[in-house]
Amino acid sequence: MTTTLTPPRKYAAPAIKQTKLLIGGEWCDAADGRTFATYNPVNEEKIADVALAGKVDVDRAVAAARKAFESGPWHTMDARDRGQLIGKLADLIEANFDELAALETLDNGKPIRDSRGADLPLVIDCLRYYAGWADKIVGQTIPVRGDYFTYTRREPTGVCGQIIPWNFPMLMVAWKWGPALAAGCTIVMKPAEQTPLTCLRLAELAMEAGFPPGVINVVTGFGETGAAIVKHPDVDKIAFTGSGETAQRIMVDAASTLKRITFELGGKSPNIVFADANLDAAVAGAEFGLFFNQGQCCCAGSRLFVEKSIHEEFVAKVVSRAKARKLGNPLEMDTTQGPQVDRDQFDKIMKYIELGKSQGATCVTGGYRVGDKGFYVAPTVFDHVSDDMAIATDEIFGPVLSILPFESIEEVTRRANATTFGLAAAVWTRDVAKAHRIAHSVRAGTVWINCYDVFDAAAPFGGFKMSGMGRELGEAALASYTELKTVTMTLK
10 Å Cβ neighbour count for 488? Predict the structure, then answer.
């Protein structure tokens, strides 16, 4: 079966309501008037010109966040009232569901079935989860020697610089804003230059919800804008989701003021299928675990380890499902795969596909561009992949699946861990003991058993090794947005 684009249909693109910077509660142009273009990955046409923040704009945003943190109404607001504001933002997002889903799809290229069925529900759930935490961040009383009363309290870290990626723009806003706002911090956020539009729209809704000026600030731009946030001496914490190379630069730049840091970085996640697994469920999980969001997931199951006795059958089933994926206009509900986010990502993926072929892997389906307009890549599956091939070692961030056969649990555990990454992993088996043995042995921050890509706002997410520092989501995320203070009083 040849993968082809579905015929284009007319659709109503959402109105672009905001392209300016949000600083201190006001929407403004960049100080020097500069802008940059954001493009539609479906047709490579410009969507809008967006304000390009420079150092002067970042300085103003940080000053606004500092003022809001130290002397504004946010500083004295009851925790429960903070939670109600977060909850109201979630309500406004839900009320604007259709617009936001279409805007996310327009700017990013992901199928609207995913924007509506996955991203937005998770955004709303995450914010409501942290709305409930705002008045439940507590300390402890501690019995100490002598006539003293000692207790601890958790206080907000302060001004937080948050830099988010382009693969899940709205969801990453929720993951960052939720715990920071619940803890009482203030925010200077830079969305990815490829996908700034939904972040700006969410900031508009935050203003409508009633957040005081300066609590949430959004500065759009490129790496230089992010670097200005990281280097700013009045920023207390950096939360970054993106590449390991950028994270290393952030660590260097943040070192002079010892900023608190949270990193959620890349992965090369092993997805392990044993012969005793429910094969149909494992095949469906393998397809979803890699091809969801066009393979542009940090936890994508790009290394598919399959026990040798079922290898041929499994490959045939995976190839069949890959060929059945429907590429087309992502604003059509029956489209299951959209374009990659931009030209750079498209070119990177095509380079890795050629490397896979030249290094001896067998491309059993896909491996080519679809159409002559837009950044579409056919769902690609490589078989007979060895551990040292580039497609098995490097994060591709695209719809490219590598299948690697194995013979024993000891072998696959060793090979699964033979990577600098450690974000996620999965195992498929009916043997409960085997499942937990793998879960305990694989060095990854999240392990799924007989499922893949299951997320909940209550469950911590983050990586081992080069896949990150700290945790997002759950109660664990709140720890990274608070400082622990000890108070001791004499009883004499």
Answer: 11
Please tell me the distance from the alpha carbon of residue 312 to that of residue 385, in angstroms, as a whole number: 14
Which of 70-74, 128-132, 134-138, 377-381 has the weakest average pLDDT? Answer: 70-74
C-alpha–C-alpha distance, residues 356 and 384, integer Å:
10
CB 240 within 8 A of CB 271: no
Q: CATH number for the domain including 333?
A: 3.40.309.10
Q: How far is CA 13 from CA 78, 98, 103, 209, 390, in A?
A: 40, 11, 8, 25, 39
Whether residue 380 is found in the same domain as residue 426? yes
Same domain, 392 and 438: yes
pTM above 0.90, yes or no: yes
Residue 296 and residue 434 in one domain: yes
Task: Round to whole Å and give the CA distance between 337 and 107.
Answer: 15
Domain count, the chain: 2
- Please return the burial class of 345, using the count of CB atoms within 10 Å of its CB with bins 0-12, 13-18 and 19+: buried
* DSSP labels, 23-41: ETTEEE--TT--EEEEE-T
What long-range pairs does 406-410 form, CB within 8 A, spacing at least 24?
406/272, 406/305, 406/306, 406/307, 406/308, 407/307, 407/308, 409/274, 409/434, 409/437, 409/438
**Tokens standing for 436?**
């937990």
User: If you count them, how many residues does the chain have?
Assistant: 492
- H-type alpha helices, 145-195: 169-183
pLDDT digits (tens, 9 = 90+) for 235-257: 999 999 999 999 999 999 999 99
Q: How is residue 53 written in tokens?
A: 């923040």
Strand partners, 489: 149
**Cα 481 from Cα 259, distance rounded (Å):** 12
Contact 83, 98 (CB under 8 A): no
- Known catalytic residues are 264
